[in-house]
């Protein structure tokens, strides 16, 4: 009988320690599930724009492949609704000339390639003075959800011109995921808050 009090005390201590472990594990799990908490992506992943003003233009084809109004709307959505309005950057439409930050092209990019971005003129280091974005609408309009997919791809390629790379699903569910939109949720047609934070801190 003399041994019971110490054993009871040991059990109470073990119970307390177990509760502490359970609480700690629950807190760690909650932190890991917080968006962006444990899945932060580096920045920049590509190159940086040369300034906070992101001037853009459309390369108008004189042949049989002009920009349709609905196609330009997808670009305007990316430049104004998803870059200028939610961040500190300024989108400015102008005529294509030397120094224009983003030149939008319609191009046949080949099977399975929906869009691409490329810096054409470097300022210094990883700063880009002028970039081309090429969209292949024949590829974009395959499958369903074309309206959403055009916008997602325009936002995606634009993201590359301000420092964003490809995000895997689960890290940041947003326009920077590669491939088609999985559904019509607006999540896939905008930058993640984590990315907007980096853009605002940089520009």
Q: Roughly how much helix do the residues carry, as a percent range?
A: 25-40%
Structural class: alpha/beta
Residue-averaged pLDDT: 83
CATH homologous superfamily of the largest domain, by name?
Answer: Collagenase (Catalytic Domain)
Q: What summary fits the major beta sheet? A: 6 strands, mixed
Label the CATH architecture of the largest domain: 3-Layer(aba) Sandwich
Number of strands: 6
The CATH topology of the largest domain turns out to be: Collagenase (Catalytic Domain)
Structure annotation, total helices: 5
List low-confidence stretches: 1-38
Q: Which H/E pattern describes the elements?
A: HEEHEEEEHHH
Assign an overall shape. Answer: globular
Query: Gyration radius, to the nearest Å?
Result: 24 Å
Number of domains: 2
User: What's the CATH class label of the largest domain?
Assistant: Alpha Beta
Distance between the termini: 74 Å
């Amino acid at each position: 009988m003399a041994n019971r009090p110490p054993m009871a005390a040991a059990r109470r201590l073990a119970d307390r320690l177990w509760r502490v472990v359970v609480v700690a594990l629950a807190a760690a799990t909650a932190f890991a599930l917080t968006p962006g908490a444990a899945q932060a992506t580096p920045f920049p992943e590509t190159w940086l724009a040369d300034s906070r003003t992101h001037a853009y233009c459309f390369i108008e084809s004189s042949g049989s492949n002009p920009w349709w109004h609905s196609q330009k709307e997808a670009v305007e959505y990316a430049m104004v609704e998803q870059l200028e309005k939610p961040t500190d950057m300024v989108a400015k439409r102008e005529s294509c000339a030397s120094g224009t930050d983003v030149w939008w092209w319609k191009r046949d990019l080949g099977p399975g390639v929906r869009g691409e971005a490329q810096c054409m003129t470097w300022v210094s280091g990883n700063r880009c003075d002028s970039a081309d974005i090429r969209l292949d609408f024949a590829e974009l309009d395959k499958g369903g959800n074309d309206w959403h997919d055009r916008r997602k791809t325009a936002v995606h390629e634009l993201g590359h011109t301000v420092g964003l790379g490809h995000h895997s699903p689960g890290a940041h569910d947003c326009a920077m995921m590669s491939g088609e939109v999985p559904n019509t949720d607006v999540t896939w047609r905008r930058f993640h808050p984590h990315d907007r934070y980096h853009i605002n801190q940089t520009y």
